[in-house]
Amino acid sequence: MPLPKAEVSVTCHDAKNHVMECKRAIADESGYFQMELGVTKVSDFFMGDPSKACHVRLQASPEFKCNNPTNINYSSIEGASLRDEGKRWTGEGYDNVMYAAGPLAFRPAICPPKH
């Protein structure tokens, strides 16, 4: 279930695998977020591919009782990889591409044991 007002970050690496951009966003009332990255050339991204160069991480939950980020859809500390959604449009002299990340999830701080 999407979580409105959850905070996420997107971190992207450059061609030398150094962090070139790190931004935060707050999910809207539907639990989704959109973010514009300031990179204009695909070749500036690590391996020339934003889906390999950028990762999304949960940062903060608006729910006090459910605020521990999980790695439910990714296995590394980098976060969830982006996937190309196949949506493209041109605007202001450059091409735009929409990427998405798989569902992200928080868990409660204390999980009662199951017997």
Automatic annotation (TrEMBL):
Keywords: Signal. The keyword Signal applies. The keyword Signal applies. It holds the Pfam family Pollen_Ole_e_1. This is Uncharacterized protein. It comes from the Eukaryota. GO terms for cellular component: cell periphery.
